[in-house]
Structures are given as C-alpha cells and as structure tokens.
Amino acid sequence: MTYANSILDLVGNTPLVKLNRVTDGIAATVLVKLEYLNPGGSSKDRIATRIIDAAEREGKLKPGGTIVEPTSGNTGIGLALVAQQRGYRCVFVLPDKVGEDKRSVLTAYGAEIVVTPTAVAPESPESYYSVSDRLVREIPGAFKPDQYSNQNGPLSHYETTGPELWRDTDGRITHFVAGVGTGGTISGAGRYLKEVSDGKVVVIGADPEGSVYSGGTGRPYLVEGVGEDFWPTAYDPDVVDEIVASTDAESFEMTLRLAREEGMLVGGSSGMAVASALKAARSLPADAVMVVLLPDGGRGYLGKIFNERWMASHGFAAAGAGPTVADALD
Ligand code: PMP
C-alpha cells in the first residue's frame, strides 16, 4: 500500500512547471514552483513543523499550550495543521485586509481568530503585532512562533525548498525569484542555492511597490502576504542580489493571466512574483533557467482579485473585460 502516515508527511516536494504563454518574447526558461500543492495550500506549511518541533524541544511549548501568532492566513493554516495533530490550541491575529475566505479556512481547521485594523502604525496598541503580544502575555502557556524573527522559518526553506530547486533543475537553475514577506523563503532557499552553486545563482526578491524592501515606507498596498513596513530578522539582505518591485495593478493583472493562460489559480503574491520575475527575465539569454516560487493558491481571493466588482471598485481591470456570449444574447 502506498500512503502517507499523516497529512504532515505530504508537505514539500512541490513540482516545477514551465510558463509558456505569459513569457511571450522571453528567451530564458521560466519555471514556477507550485507551493499551493502543499496540503495546507501554501509554502507556509514548510515552516510550521520546524517551528513547533523547535519550540517543544526548547520547552517553549508544553502539552495543552496555545500558539498565538499574527498571520495573514497561510502561516496560520500550517501551524493549525501541526497544532491539531499535537493537541495545541491556536489563536491567530489577522489584519482586516485579509479576505473572508481566508479567515473561514483558519476557523475550519479549528483555530480562533482576532481581526485588527490595517491602517494603524505597528507600534499602535491596535496593530496586529501589539494585539498578539498582549494575547501572549494574557493566555497561560502561550507560545508566539514569531515568523518574522524565528530562524526556523528560513532554516526550513534552507533544508527543503532550496535542495528541491537544485535537485529538480539538475543544478541548472541560474535565477531564483520569490516574493518577500517575512523574508524566510528567499533567505533560506536563496542561501542554500548560493552555497551549492558557489554563489552563481542570482537571487531576486519581488516586492509590492511601497514596501520597505524596494525603498518604500510601507504605504498600504493590496497584495497580501508580501512586503513589509519594517525589516524582519527572518530576512537576510546579504542573500538577495536584487529587488524588483511591482504595482498592485501589475500583480493582479498577472494573477488573472496565470489562471486564464497557464491554468494556475494562484494568489496575488504569486502574480506579483511572476510580474517582477518577467521584468528581470527579459534581458536574460536563452540558456538561463529562472525559477519563480508561487506561494499560495487563488481560492482565498475569489471575492477579490477574481471578482470583477471588487477589481473595478479598486480601479483595476477585471478578468472578464471584453464581449461575452451573454452580451451577444442581450
Ligand atoms: N505570499 C503569501 C501569500 C504569503 O502568505 C507569504 C508569507 N507571509 C509570502 C508570500 C512571503 O513569504 P515569506 O514570508 O517567506 O517571505
């Protein structure tokens, strides 16, 4: 019989797929790594096991304990998967820009959620960082993984994502592109790729325009899960050769194209990563092999990026632009 002993054994080893249509006019091979095929639906499944294992080992998390974390959703799902198996309670703090669908997924996995306003400074008592700190103080046996500073995040990508990229490209990867949120993915996988290639793999961070990584102040943008208004210690700037920024409009347009033209229903940070990657890929030769990591799937964004009314109300072009059968029948 072939089966996994637990859902957690299915984390990682996600496939690479070549982009064929959105890469029109680009000579290099551009591959994407489909992290939405992880059991919890995102790259964050990878960091959860390592973070919880380490907390148990270090005595920070004891039987019956509670995991408290500010998370845009995906880290919560990963943590909830592990917590569920080991009998921990989970309380997640979310900014209010996180969609209803993503919130429901967290509660479906048995987690409790607390929603906080996006448009306040990080040091405000209402900010999602402050609220989570207060919950950690008030809940007995609480453990805050803190994905922004926990080095087990980047380490999980150093130990799994990086080696998978090298193995699955037979060591031919020349460029690695990932969106930067906590910075864990790019720092961990990027560091592995730098080491194994003697510094040859070029590591490119993709960032929403306005975020600190591309020189902004953290002005609110609509793409979720990437960009910051501060510098997390999970991010190692020494690993990153270049940052390429994309606007919300560019990111959402590419997200829609990935679904329509490549058959990949992915989230806005994936569209952002591809939009930024293709700007860099335009100047690359035919023998370059670029891999872009796509962090999560599109189902958590059906009411936003994939909703014509939501897109139009924020001034973006929607997917359904152009004449339809319904128009012809009117
Ligand atoms: N995209 C999405 C949808 C995410 O949830 C995250 C994690 N915050 C990222 C990208 C960025 O990954 P990292 O935190 O490893 O930089």
From TrEMBL:
Signal peptide: none
Annotated catalysed reactions: L-homocysteine + L-serine = L,L-cystathionine + H2O
Domain Tryptophan synthase beta chain-like PALP: 8-296
Enzyme class: lyase
Record keywords, A-Z: Lyase, Pyridoxal phosphate
GO cellular component: cytoplasm
Listed name of the protein: Cystathionine beta-synthase
Lineage: Bacteria, Bacillati, Actinomycetota, Actinomycetes, Micrococcales
Cofactor(s) annotated in UniProt: pyridoxal 5'-phosphate
GO BP annotations listed: cysteine biosynthetic process via cystathionine
EC number: 4.2.1.22
Residues of the full protein shown: 1 to 330 of 451
Family as reported in the entry's similarity comment: Belongs to the cysteine synthase/cystathionine beta-synthase family.
Superkingdom: Bacteria
GO terms assigned for molecular function: cystathionine beta-synthase activity
